[in-house]
Description:
Elements: E1 5-9, E2 12-16, H1 22-28, E3 36-40, E4 43-45, E5 59-65
Parallel strand pairs: 1-5
Antiparallel strand pairs: 1-2, 3-4, 3-5
Amino acid sequence: MNYPKYFQFNGNKYCTYNEISLLDLVQYFNYNSPLFVLEYNNFICNKNKWKNTFIKNNDILEIVTIVGGG
């Protein structure tokens, strides 16, 4: 039996019963720009790990966009 996993993504609360990787989540929300990083439970998660890192109950994820300026 799959138990619900509650998580927060960009300040919004979600629930899933499925196994979702960080890569699945980023693709689902259509984030395609190479100019962002994913903060996973207050740490920057390397893009190489997104495919094999799965959302767990109470995870907090944030997309941090890199913005240039002068």
